[in-house]
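Morning, I've got a small favour to ask if you have a moment. It would help a lot if you went through both lines with me. Thanks so much in advance, here it is.

***
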Amino acid sequence: DLNNYKVRWLTPIKKDYLNHSVYMMPPPSSSGVLTSTIIGLAEKIDLAKKTPSSIEEAHLLAEILKMAFRGRSLLGDPDFNKNPVTELTSTKYIKTLADQIS
């Protein structure tokens, strides 16, 4: 069964946050796109400046996760699906989501 197996190299998704570079798995895993969106939203609403373990931080984290997971249904195996990774991690998309958080 492994005679025809070929390793497939996928370029990781990279996102910088708080002076760190985060490298994540690209599709077919959805986690890299979601994590990149989460990081982008956290950066956009300046989550790092909120009081740790506060009600405000917990609320914003819940809102960030809710917004980020909206795009998950658009992702799939790149062998069978055109994944809008660039759109889901774009500054414009992040701003649109962040503007909906209150």
Q: What stands out?
A: The first strand starts at residue 13 and ends at 17. The beta strands are 13-17, 20-24. The chain has a mean pLDDT of 93. The first helix runs from residue 31 to 44.
